[in-house]
Amino acid sequence: MDKRRISLSDHSTELWPLRRAEQLTRCSLYWIPVSAFPIPSAQKEWLTVFIDRFSEWTQSDRGLRAESFLQMKTVHPALLEPFIDTAHDFIPVLGLSQRPGKRLPPIPTMESLQPIIDGKRKFDFNESVGDYCYWFVDKDAKKQRELFFGYGGMTTIFLTPDPKTKVEPLPIPKGIREHPVFADLFKRFSPDLANARAHSLADGFRRKSLDLFAGDLKKDIQSKGIPFSIPLLYTRDFFDRPEEEFKKWFELFDLYISESPQDEGILLASKLDVEQPLVRILKELMTEGLTYPSATL
Fold first, then answer.
1. Where are the domains of the chain?
2. Is the terminal CB of the chain with fewer CB neighbours within 10 Å at N or C?
3. Helical residues (DSSP H) of the chain, grouped into ranges
4. What is the pLDDT of residue 95?
5. Closest among 66, 79, 107, 38 to 268, alpha carbons compared
6. Which pTM was predicted?
7. Cα radius of gyration (the chain)
C-alpha cells in the first residue's frame, strides 16, 4: 500500500486507529492497520466489535442490509473445518470476486502443465485459479465474522434492501405447527428457514453484479453459470481506476469493508458521509475500555 495516500485527518485523534485517505475526494476511504494476517486475536476481537457496531448503524440509521463474502483461497487449510461444519447453516454459494482490469487465469493445457509434471516448476494455486468467493445465503454476519474474519478473505458490502427478499410468514396454522406429528419434523426441517433462503436466492444484487462487472467474461467458459460477481478492491484502486469503473462499484453497494493483506489492514470505503458515526462508535469503544492493540503504521 502507498501509505502516502492514507494520511491523518483533522479528526486523527478521534478516528484512531482509522486513517482516512484525505487526498481522495470521490468517496470516503479509511484504513485500519493490522500486525499480520491471520490477524492477532486481540486485534481481531476489537475489529469484530467495531464492525458489528458499524453494521448495526448502517441498518438502524441508513436502512441498509449487509451481504457477506469469503474468498475461496483463504478457506484452505485454516478455515476448511469450520467452513464445512457450517455449510449446512450458512449455505455458501460460489461466485466471482474480480480484481479491476484482471481476467481469469486461462484453463491449464498439457503444455503449461508439463513443467509441473516434470518437477521443473511448482504449481501455484494463487496464480492458476481465479479469485472466486463464497456468498453466504443465510444472514448471520456476526457469527460468520466470528468464524472466518481475520484470515484476509472476508468482504462485506452494504446495500439497499431488495423487496424480492422480504419474507412473509408461511400460512401454516398453529395447530399444524404444534401437532406432535409435525413439531418434530419442523425441528429437523424448518419450512420458514427454507422460505427465507429461497427469498435470499432471489436477490436482485446477483443479476446487477453480473451486469456491472462480468460483461468482459461472457465469452469465457469459466464464467458460465456464475451467479454473481463482486469487485475485489485494494487501496490503490480507489485512486487509480477510471471514474466510469469507480462509479460502477457504488452502483452495487453504498459501503464496502474488506480484509486486504495487500494493504496490511482493513479497508472501509463509502459513498456516504460516515465520519461522525465512526467517531461516535470509536468513542463508545474507548469508554467501554476497548482499546485497539497497536500495529505498525
1. 64-162+203-266
2. C
3. 12-15, 41-62, 80-90, 110-117, 125-128, 141-148, 174-178, 180-188, 191-201, 205-213, 235-240, 243-252, 275-287
4. 95
5. 66
6. 0.86
7. 21
C-alpha distances in Å from residue 191, one per residue of 34, 164, 176, 183, 253: 42, 18, 12, 12, 30
Q: Name the residue among 241, 294, 250 with its Cα closest to residue 272.
A: 250
Instruction: Considering only residues 188 and 268, tell me which one the structure prediction assigns the higher pLDDT.
Output: 268
Residue 263, all three cell numbers: 494493504
Q: Model confidence at 170, in pLDDT bands (50, 70, 90)? A: low
User: Helix/strand/coil (H, E, C) string of 231-261?
Assistant: ECCCHHHHHHCCHHHHHHHHHHCCEEEEEEH
Q: How far is CA 97 from CA 73, 94, 288, in A?
A: 11, 10, 37
Comparing C-alpha atoms, which of 57, 20, 17, 9 is closest to residue 35? 17
Which residues make Cβ contacts (< 8 Å) with residue 39, sequence separation at least 6? 47, 149, 150, 151, 259
Tell me the mean pLDDT in the region 80-94: 96
Percent of the chain scoring above 70 in pLDDT: 75
The DSSP letter of residue 273 is -
B/e letters for 166-184, b = 16+ CB within 10 Å, e = fewer, are eeeeeeeeeeeeeeeeeee
The amino acid present at 122, given as its one-letter code, is K
Q: Which residues pair with 257 in a beta bridge?
A: 156, 268
Tell me the average pLDDT across 140-149: 96
Q: Which residue has the higher pLDDT, 80 or 220?
A: 80
Alpha helix stretches (DSSP H) within 65-124: 80-90, 110-117
Q: Position of cell 466489535?
A: 49
